[in-house]
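Changelog-adjacent note: as of this version, every example in the card shows the full chain rather than a window. The one below runs 333 residues end to end.
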Amino acid sequence: MHAQAIEEFQHEHYYLGVRHAENERRTWLVVALTAAMMLVEIIGGHMFGSMALIADGWHMSTHVTALGIAALAYRFARRHAHDSRFSFGTGKLGDLAGFTSAILLAGVAVFIGVESLLRLFNPVAIHYTEAIPIAVLGLFVNLASAWLLGGHEHAHADEHGSGHAEPHAHDHHDDHPHDHARHDHAHHDHNFRAAYVHVLADALTSLLAIAGLLAGRYLGLGFLDPVMGLIGTVVIAAWAYTLIRGAGAVLLDVVPDPGLGEQIRARLERGGDRIADLHLWRVGPGHTAVILTVVSDTPCAPAEYKTRLAGIVGLSHVTVEVQPCPGAHGTGG
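Full-length structure tokens:
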């Protein structure tokens, strides 16, 4: 067999989102901005005795780490996207980074909760005049960071715009249907989402810090400063759980969309053809891989079954095995 014939059926496993490079650049900008504000809040909180301000500052410190992990994950995935050591590319690296960031976010929630409880039962004097402007500045920085990351509209566009298929020629085991549409399920860039949630958590703690400080200064309700920290703990912990659950599901190869399996069965199970084995898992934002076995009384060539799958959204790597029923005659592959 000629080398040219072999190359015709080979393809790369490039499963990164279409906004990968853009998300990387924006994330690095937010890292720098957040790190600067982190120092201001931690120093200001200690100088002026605000637990909410200190909590927000230390919260930002873990976000700097988490955002740094996100940025490095984007860079590593991009630089090693064509590395043959990764069987299905580096598309899932973002999910690993997102899972790690979610763990850090959960740790932040615990830290803020413990420190807030300590301050609630052991109040300290708060210099409201100095602390409030720093908290307000922190909120503006957080909002700027959210803007840099693009907010919900950018996140939505990333999740629904990265399922493009790159045309390749494949052998009878690997096919890449040339459909650029996609499902709305299980195509999230968890790395980007984790970075964005960290920014939202920062904005929340800043907002709560401002509310607590204002209540203490103008209403004499100083206890609300640590109470706001406790409220932030609950909300941030819930966000962390959601991130852990979403990214963890991808890392464990949970079926990304049950409806996709039903659609595949509807396309292939015709006449005497039946799917005996079906595996679906996500290999990157907008990219789903499938391995399946068709058993048939009158089996067709694998290419025929893959042709039936053409147009199904989100499929980026398809392997088809065909087995004839006992006593039947046909083609296997």
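Structural remarks: The chain has two domains: 3-172+181-251, 258-324.
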